[in-house]
Amino acid sequence: MLENKKILILGLARSGYYVAKLLYQNNDIILTDRSDKEIDKIKELESLGIKFIKSETGEELLDGIDILIKNPGIEPFHPCIKKAESLNIPIVNEMEVAYHYLPKNVFIVGITGSNGKTTTTTMLYELLKLHQVNVTLGGNIGYPLSEVIKDVKENSTLVLEISDHQLNDLHDFKTDMSILTNLCPTHLDFHGTYERYINTKKKIFNHHTKDNKAFINYKNEDSLKITEDINSTKIYFNNDSNYFDDKGIYIDNELVINLSDIKIKGNHNYENITVMLLALKNILNDKLDMNIVKDYLKKFNGVEHRIEVVDTNTNIDFYNDSKATNPTSTLIALKTMNKPTRIILGGKERFQDFEEIDSELNKICYIYAIGEITDRVEEFALKHNILCKKCYTLENAMEEIKKDVKDGEAVLLSPGSASWDQYDKFETRGEEFKKLVEKLFK
Fold first, then answer.
1. Are 261 and 369 in the same domain?
2. pLDDT digits (tens, 9 = 90+) for 155-180
3. Are both 261 and 383 inside the same structural domain?
4. Do 181 and 72 share a domain, yes or no?
5. Distance of alpha carbon 294 from alpha carbon 42, whole angstroms
């Protein structure tokens, strides 16, 4: 626990706000952000004795600071981070801090991966609740650990979605069980190299011993590579024992559920369900009730913004896949399409390689390029002889689609790119898409 420390919190957002509230009673806290637009939050924190200073980088505030708590989204090469490193000031994030405030004997399940982690986390948490387990949900799924820690009780279970941005600044943090769904090149703007990215993901297994379990995707080469030397007890999925085929999902070579009994479709979802069931079985043991599982999976619609069906009164299918922030996610979405598809691609420049979707290009009848990388998306389209319009914004793209789209086609927002060039988060981009569908097509 932190006491009698002078702390600089870099970045407000949700994580900065809640970690400040967690620490304010016993520490001297300065919170800095380049924006002061969240007036209500700032005033509340100031009423608690927390000093807010608007600053472009915050590096001038490091004098006398004992510890720097950074927002997970702030890059490792940010000026304030580099200066803190030169001054040997410890750098952590809110999850690392909150970890030290957890009550005794909390069983922590950590879930990470390039794709599928939110769906896997959601299903595992909801099914544990349905099995009457005292469980709390948090992490990258939208609830910082420092926010939900008040709900975590002794001898309970904590399910955390953990992003690479969060893993980057974890040190003492340790899970009891970790799931790595898969790995593919993404977030290279944040990490600089793919090697650094996958080694950051490896931190989900930090401090593990044989008493801790690691669930690893056997068909994902990079996942196998980085887990060769971990100390966890390794449990594989997508192998000869735990897998899915065109009939159903198998755990320990036993058919546990038919695909016809699962509402969400697609191999990526069956993969997520396989590892989720494997983890659920290991947590519950003989208390696992497959009737509860089957009833849940018959109704589960998937997570919002991930190949989410947007209803209209037209003969056109609309899919909100704003959560596709890398081309691998877009590839997964395209594999589920069974109609000529008009796709909206683009967003923040993160050196993403759209060649990853090559195998599904036959599904695409038109590309609408948006965002910071509009020109690069157009170049990709031209290279592959796909019709393309440079739209720059989502609203422009939807207005063009309104003119072009035909009955029997699909419209897919699956940008393969982060949203931060034009939106604060991918959820905002997805909400705008759904509003535009309603405005233009209902």
1. no
2. 999 999 999 999 999 999 999 999 99
3. no
4. no
5. 46
Q: Find, among 168, 32, 13, the residue nearest to 95 by Cα.
A: 168
Phi and psi of 327, rounded to 5°?
A: -60, -30
Do 264 and 343 sit in the same domain of this protein? no
Q: How many CA atoms lie within 13 A of 233 on its CB side?
A: 8
* Beta-sheet pairing, 6-10 with 28-33: parallel
Identify the domain containing residue 16 by its residue range: 6-92
List the one residue out of 15, 11, 272, 9 whose CA is nearest residue 148.
Answer: 15
Q: What is the pLDDT of residues 291-322, one digit of tens each?
A: 999 999 999 988 889 899 898 888 999 999 99
pLDDT at 423: 96
Number of domains in the chain: 3
Same domain, 106 and 242: yes
In a domain, 187, yes or no: yes
Query: pTM (2 decimals)?
Result: 0.84
Phi-psi region of 58 (alpha: psi -120 to 50; beta: other; left: phi over 0): left
pLDDT tens profile 6-38? 999 999 999 999 999 999 999 999 999 999 999
- Distance CA(192)–CA(350), nearest Å, equals 10
Residue 1 lies in a domain: no
- For the chain, give the mean pLDDT: 95
Of 333, 285, 282, nearest in space to 309 by CA: 333
Whether residue 367 contacts residue 345, with contact meaning beta carbons closer than 8 Å, is answered with yes
Q: pLDDT > 90: what percent of the chain?
A: 89
